[in-house]
Design goal:
Mean pLDDT: 77
Strand content: 5-15%
Number of helices: 8
Strand order of the largest sheet: 2-1-3-4
Length: 171
């Protein structure tokens, strides 16, 4: 699967995508889920970046392969990073078929709990994925991605500031 990247000038607000989704195209489960989202109305406003084949885009955004493999990352239209459950909420907010769910999760305050569940799944997925020999980073192969590491997945080590108030309507 080839990554799709916009040809817009970085920082151009008129051609900026609604979101940029960084996903593992080498993971069969991830690939199926993203394929589902890409068929939906509104998906054409999202850049889909397959981290298994697009190192240049990762480097451009200062996102390490290790961090990208550990959790789903979404760069929202405002340039803020969302990871894990917050990343899914941001992705869903861009898709009319799922925007109601994004709003519900953001307003209900359940995203932190869902993120914990996602973190357990993400660690399992990464260990399973690395057992097939796909991972090249020795730290990834050891599965060194606890909840503490999840906070450090932002480029530059910045803290994640998720949108949890539900103040934004569907795109």
């Amino acid at each position: 699967m080839t990554a799709i990247v916009t040809t817009a000038t970085p920082g151009s607000s008129t051609d900026r995508p609604a979101a940029r989704v960084f996903y593992d195209g080498a993971c069969p489960l991830c690939r199926r889920e993203i394929s589902h989202y890409r068929r939906l109305r509104g998906a054409d406003r999202i850049d889909w970046v397959d981290i298994s084949s697009d190192q240049a885009t990762l480097q451009h955004y200062g996102l390490s392969r290790r961090a990208a493999m550990a959790r789903l990352h979404v760069l929202d239209a405002a340039g803020a990073w969302q990871t894990g459950a917050w990343a899914f909420a941001e992705l869903w907010a861009q898709l009319p078929a799922y925007c109601w769910l994004a709003g519900l999760l953001r307003r209900s305050g359940t995203l932190p709990l869902l993120d914990r569940g996602y973190s357990v799944f993400a660690r399992w997925r990464l260990r399973r994925h690395c057992d097939t020999g796909v991972c090249t980073d020795a730290r990834m192969a050891r599965g060194n991605h606890g909840a503490k590491d999840a906070r450090l997945t932002q480029p530059g080590g910045a803290a994640r500031l998720p949108h949890t108030t539900g103040e934004r309507r569907c795109a």
